[in-house]
C-alpha cells in the first residue's frame, strides 16, 4: 500500500480537521456517509496543504474486504435493518468515490499512489456497484450522478495509470453499460445535462486511450459491446448516437471539448475493427454511420485536427457494401457541401488521395443505380455556385469534371428510362422458347426470382426440363441482387441494354477479336462498370463456369444461341458480376462469323486491319 493511503496520515491534519475526520472514521455507516458527503462538499475550501491527508479517510471506506459481507447480505433475504445497512454502505461508497474524484480534480493525490488506489479501492467497488446494481436498495443518488462518477474516475486513472486499467477484468463492460445508460437517459433540459456531457466526454477520452489496447485485444470490443447491449445490436447505434449527440447538425459550433468527444468514436471505424468484427461494421453502416460522419465533416472547420481523418473514414465507409446505398445516404447528408464549404487549401496532403478515390472511382461507379442518380441529380442542382477550381488540386479538378460529364450522360439515360423510352426486353427461360418479351409480358419465378417465363405453359415446361433441380441453388445467387430495389434492378438491365444498342461498333470489334483468338469457344459479353464508364469485352464462356455452372451449361446446349451478358460492378470494396441472359442470337451468326474469320489471309495481322473487316461483322450482327 502506498504511504499516502495509510490511515495514520489523519494525525497530520490540523486539530479541528483531524478531530472531524477521526469522528467520521469511527461513526456508524449512516453517520459516516453523511460525514463523507460533507467533506466532499467542503474539499475546495480546505487548504491545499491539508487535502492530501484526507485521502486515507475515503480510501478506508473503500476497503474491498467489506464487499464479501455485503454480497452475502444481498444473496440472503436481508432484514429491514440489513437493507438499511446495505443502503448506507452504498451511499458511503459513492460519496467516498466522489471525494476521491474531487481530490483528483484538485491535484491533491500523488501520482505514485494511483496504481494502489485503483487496484485496492476504486476498481473493486466500481465493479461491485455495477455488477449488483439491480439488487441494491434504492438510494437518493441519481443513477446519472453515480455513473458519471464511474466514467470520470475510469478515464482519469486510464490517463495516468495506463495499461493496468485496460487489463482490469470487466472494465470495458462497465464502460459500455455506463455509456449506454448516460446516452439513453440524457435530456437537454435536465439539470444533470452538463454532468452527463462531461461524463460522455470522459468515455470518449477513455476509448481514445484504449484504442491501441482494443487493436491488440479484440475481445475488449466484445466486452464493450456486451455492456452496451450487444456488439451488433447495441454498440453500433450508440456510436452513431454519440456522434449526433455532440454534433446534431452541420451548423454545430465545434469547440475543443466537442472535438475531443468526437475523437473517441474514431477507433470504431478503423480497418482493424472491420477486419475482426465485420458484423459490427455492417451494423454501424445500417445505423446511419455514413450520414453521421458527413454531418461531422460539415461541422468541422478547415483547421480542425480531425477533419482529414473524418474525411478519410467517410470515404472508406462510403465504399463499403452496399456502396450505392452508402453514397446515396452521404449525398443526402450533404457530401458535396462538405467538399465545397471551405476556401482554397482545405484539401491537401493525404486528403487529395482520398478525394481522388472518391471522384474517380467511388462516385462514378455508383452512377449505374437509379436510386443514386435520383439523389445525385438533386445534390448537383447547386453546382454552379461551387468553386471547384479553387477547392481542388489540378488532378482532383480533372476527376471532378470527368465525373460530372459521366453523371450528365447517365441523367439522360435515366430520363429515357423514367419516360418509358428505354426498356430492356427479357428472355423466356424455357429452353424451347427463349424469346424476348417486354416486362408486361413475362413473369419471374416466385422461388428464385431469376428465371422468367412468358406463359404458364413455358413455366411448366421449364420446370420439368431443368428448373426444378436448380431453383433452390439459384436462390442463393440472389444475394448479388438482394441489396438492390426493384427499380434499381430494372434500371441496371436497361443500362446494359442501352450500352449494347449504342456501342455496336465496339461490340463488333470485340466479337471479331474473339473469333480470331478463340475460334472454337463460345463467348460471353462483359460490360464493365467498375469505375463508372462502360467498358466492353467479349471473353470465353468458360468465364461463367465459376459463376453459374447451370447457365454455362445452358449456353453450351443451345450452341451459343443464348447471349449472356455479365455486368461487372463494385459490391463494396470487391468487384462482383451480375448475370443477364439477354437475348437469343441467330443460329447461323457464330458459324458465319467464324467462317468469315477463317477466310481471311493468315498473315497474323488480321486484328491490325480490323477497320477493313468491320463493315462485314456489323452486317452479320444486323442479321442476328
UniProtKB/TrEMBL annotation:
It comes from the Eukaryota. This is MYND-type domain-containing protein. Pfam families: zf-MYND. The keyword Zinc applies. Residues 430-471 form the MYND-type domain. The keyword Metal-binding applies. It comes from Favolaschia claudopus. The lineage of its organism: Eukaryota, Fungi, Dikarya, Basidiomycota, Agaricomycotina. Keywords: Metal-binding, Zinc, Zinc-finger. GO terms for molecular function: zinc ion binding. InterPro entries: Znf_MYND. Coiled coil: none annotated.
Amino acid at each position: 500500500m502506498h504511504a499516502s493511503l495509510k490511515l495514520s496520515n489523519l494525525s497530520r491534519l490540523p486539530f479541528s480537521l483531524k478531530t472531524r475526520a477521526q469522528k467520521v472514521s469511527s461513526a456508524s455507516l449512516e453517520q459516516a456517509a453523511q460525514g463523507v458527503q460533507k467533506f466532499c462538499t467542503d474539499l475546495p475550501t480546505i487548504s491545499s496543504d491539508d487535502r492530501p491527508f484526507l485521502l486515507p479517510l475515503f480510501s478506508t471506506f473503500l476497503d474491498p474486504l467489506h464487499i464479501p459481507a455485503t454480497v452475502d447480505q444481498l444473496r440472503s433475504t436481508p432484514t429491514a435493518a440489513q437493507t438499511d445497512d446495505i443502503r448506507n454502505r452504498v451511499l458511503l461508497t459513492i460519496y467516498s468515490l466522489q471525494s476521491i474524484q474531487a481530490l483528483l480534480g484538485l491535484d491533491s493525490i500523488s501520482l505514485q499512489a494511483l496504481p494502489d488506489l485503483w487496484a485496492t479501492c476504486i476498481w473493486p467497488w466500481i465493479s461491485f456497484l455495477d455488477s449488483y446494481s439491480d439488487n441494491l436498495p434504492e438510494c437518493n443518488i441519481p443513477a446519472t450522478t453515480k455513473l458519471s462518477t464511474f466514467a470520470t474516475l475510469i478515464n482519469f486513472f486510464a490517463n495516468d495509470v495506463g495499461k493496468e486499467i485496460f487489463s482490469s477484468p470487466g472494465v470495458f463492460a462497465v464502460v459500455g453499460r455506463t455509456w449506454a445508460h448516460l446516452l439513453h437517459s440524457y435530456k437537454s433540459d435536465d439539470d444533470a445535462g452538463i454532468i452527463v456531457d462531461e461524463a460522455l466526454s470522459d468515455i470518449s477520452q477513455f476509448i481514445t486511450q484504449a484504442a491501441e489496447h482494443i487493436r491488440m485485444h479484440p475481445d475488449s470490443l466484445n466486452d464493450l459491446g456486451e455492456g452496451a447491449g450487444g456488439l451488433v445490436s447495441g454498440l453500433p447505434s450508440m456510436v452513431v448516437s454519440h456522434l449526433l449527440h455532440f454534433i446534431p447538425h452541420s451548423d454545430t459550433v465545434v469547440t475543443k471539448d466537442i472535438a475531443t468527444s468526437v475523437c473517441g468514436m474514431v477507433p470504431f471505424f478503423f480497418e482493424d475493427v472491420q477486419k475482426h468484427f465485420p458484423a459490427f461494421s455492417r451494423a454501424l453502416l445500417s445505423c446511419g454511420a455514413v450520414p453521421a460522419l458527413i454531418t461531422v465533416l460539415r461541422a468541422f472547420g478547415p483547421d480542425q485536427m480531425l477533419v482529414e481523418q473524418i474525411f478519410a473514414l467517410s470515404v472508406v465507409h462510403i465504399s463499403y457494401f452496399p456502396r450505392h446505398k452508402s453514397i446515396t445516404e452521404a449525398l443526402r447528408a450533404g457530401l458535396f457541401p462538405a467538399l465545397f464549404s471551405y476556401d482554397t487549401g482545405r484539401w491537401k496532403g493525404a486528403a487529395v488521395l482520398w478525394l481522388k478515390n472518391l471522384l474517380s472511382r467511388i462516385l462514378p461507379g455508383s452512377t449505374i443505380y437509379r436510386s443514386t442518380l435520383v439523389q445525385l441529380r438533386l445534390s448537383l442542382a447547386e453546382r454552379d455556385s461551387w468553386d471547384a477550381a479553387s477547392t481542388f488540386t489540378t488532378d482532383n479538378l480533372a476527376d471532378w469534371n470527368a465525373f460530372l460529364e459521366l453523371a450528365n450522360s447517365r441523367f439522360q439515360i435515366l430520363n429515357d428510362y423514367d419516360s418509358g423510352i428505354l426498356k430492356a426486353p427479357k428472355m423466356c427461360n424455357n429452353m424451347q422458347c427463349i424469346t424476348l418479351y417486354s416486362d408486361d409480358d413475362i413473369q419471374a419465378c416466385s422461388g428464385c426470382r431469376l428465371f422468367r417465363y412468358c406463359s404458364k405453359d413455358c413455366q411448366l415446361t421449364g420446370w420439368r426440363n431443368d428448373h426444378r433441380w436448380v431453383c433452390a441453388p439459384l436462390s442463393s445467387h440472389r444475394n448479388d441482387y438482394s441489396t438492390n430495389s426493384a427499380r434499381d434492378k430494372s434500371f441496371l438491365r436497361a443500362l446494359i441494354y442501352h450500352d449494347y444498342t449504342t456501342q455496336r461498333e465496339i461490340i463488333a470489334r470485340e466479337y471479331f477479336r474473339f473469333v480470331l483468338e478463340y475460334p472454337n469457344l463460345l463467348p460471353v459479353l462483359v460490360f464493365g462498370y467498375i469505375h463508372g464508364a462502360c467498358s466492353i469485352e467479349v471473353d470465353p464462356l468458360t468465364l461463367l463456369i465459376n459463376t453459374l455452372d447451370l447457365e454455362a451449361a445452358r449456353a453450351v446446349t443451345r450452341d451459343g444461341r443464348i447471349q449472356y451478358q455479365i455486368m461487372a460492378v463494385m459490391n463494396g470494396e470487391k468487384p462482383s458480376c451480375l448475370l443477364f441472359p439477354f437475348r437469343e442470337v441467330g443460329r447461323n451468326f457464330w458459324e458465319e462469323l467464324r467462317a468469315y474469320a477463317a477466310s481471311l489471309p493468315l498473315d497474323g495481322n488480321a486484328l491490325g486491319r480490323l477497320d477493313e473487316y468491320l463493315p462485314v461483322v456489323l452486317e452479320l450482327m444486323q442479321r442476328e
